[in-house]
Amino acid sequence: MDNKNENKKNKKPGRTGLIIFLIAFVLPQLIAAVDEFDFDYLLWRLRHWAFQLGIDPELLPVIGAGIVVLIVLLIAAGKRRKSVEDKPVRNDRAGRTAAATQRPDPRNRSFTPPEPKCIVCDHTGEDHFVRDKQQRIAQLDEWLKNGLIDREEYRVLKSRYERDL
Length: 165
Prior knowledge:
mainly alpha, two-stranded antiparallel sheet
């Protein structure tokens, strides 16, 4: 049951409505226009034009067939290119799609984060991190007392923290 639902989702919408419209309304109009059109005059004009350009009129069918083949090849190449672009290309090294690997790196942008603004600090000069600094220094004292760090390391860590490094 699920497989049938998946197949229905994967199918592209049909063009049967368009085909029925073309057969019912456009085809009779096209046939009527062709019946009224004078092909003999068109062929005579084409031969006359070819003769004026110095082209042998006997080669016109070959030139016409070549143009038709060229148009078919261009249409086929366009469809193949479109189908290749629609499919995600897997990058075997990273397991990511090629689109993701070709996307520009957001870290390269020239973004500078805005400076945080604190109205309290600006007016009173209060340091919001006083309690955090006291807690960190107390933690360093505790580590020194427990023997986790020695005096030299304690001095280095305390001076780095006091300088906000």
